Amino acid sequence: xxxxxxxxxxxxxxxxxxxxxxxxxxxxxxxxxxxxxxxxxxxxxxxxxxxxxxxxxxxxxxxxxxxxxxxxxxxxxxxxxxxxxxxxxxxxxxxxxxxxxxxxxxxxxxxxxxxxxxxxxxxxxxxxxxxxxxxxxxxxxxxxxxxxxxxxxxxxxxxxxxxxxxxxxxxxxxxxxxxxxxxxxxxxxxxxxxxxxxxxxxxxxxxxxxxxxxxxxxxxxxxxxxxxxxxxxxxxxxxxxxxxxxxxxxxxxxxxxxxxxxxxxxxxxxxxxxxxxxxxxxxxxxxxxxxxxxxxxxxxxxxxxxxxxxxxxxxxxxxxxxxxxxxxxxxxxxxxxxxxxxxx
Length: 344
Prior knowledge:
By secondary structure, the protein is of the alpha/beta class. The protein has one domain (8-343): TIM Barrel (Alpha-Beta Barrel), CATH 3.20.20. Helices cover 41% and strands 12% of the residues. It has 13 helices and 9 strands. The protein has helices spanning 20-30, 77-89, 108-111, 115-118, 131-137, 150-174, 201-213, 229-233, 244-251, 255-263, 284-299, 305-309, 324-343; strands spanning 8-9, 60-63, 68-71, 124-129, 180-185, 218-223, 239-242, 267-273, 312-315. A 7-stranded parallel beta sheet has the order 1-9-8-7-6-5-4. It has a two-stranded antiparallel sheet with strand order 2-3. β5 (180-185), α7 (201-213) and β6 form a beta-alpha-beta unit. α9 (244-251) runs parallel beside α11 (284-299). The two termini are 26 Å apart.
């Protein structure tokens, strides 16, 4: 794994805009080195975190009026599953495409084709909802999360793996030679280990690793809450994306696992710019100080500061829940913090 950049920026994915052109302009301005396609959940229910990647799932039922989706295994399920696995066996990646109704922001790819834009790109990033979050949020007809059903869990892991394959192929076809990053977004892992979670550690690790193995480029996991970081650090991921503004000290409780991850070439994506109300009291200088303080905290745990600065900077989470002007401030501050750190 080679990644020789210090403090370059990318985003998590979601924006509050309804027009993709507005979000794309922000990305081209503030995230030129690792651009990504914007998710626009306020534009359509179909761009929600689970719905966006549900297209083609066997026996999926979708109620746009009530904004609900679920899996109905009570009728015709076996036939749909058979067709699903035939597509898997044939490596029919196109049958797992993400259509424009579900991802209007994928039109960003056309904007990246301009030579002036393309020559600044180091990586292209895409994002997929991870198997744990997807499997906990999507239920069967009895409202049971599909992750807890072994048959449905196997299907969902294949389904998301092939969505990631399709997205990566789309990038490679349009931009040959430019490496890719695929994040699996896992806010659902914040529940791991709680009294309300029935997640099994082995199932979580196996599901994530299978998704990672489907991708040829770099893979990452974004978790915007606190979790058992040793679990994620024990997987085969390349990039750990975390809320460094809120949970840096929680991550520092796992120095051995973090050191092993970084020494094998792993990369931290520091969500150093808050996407909550804290953003109103921060500026670029204060966030630069906060990043340096984070490096100091982890260095005291025996981690090489040079490995910590070989990093990506991001907002702490997606910005879909923010007012547009605040979301734009988040993007601008992320870019400004990166510039200040790289110029030192």
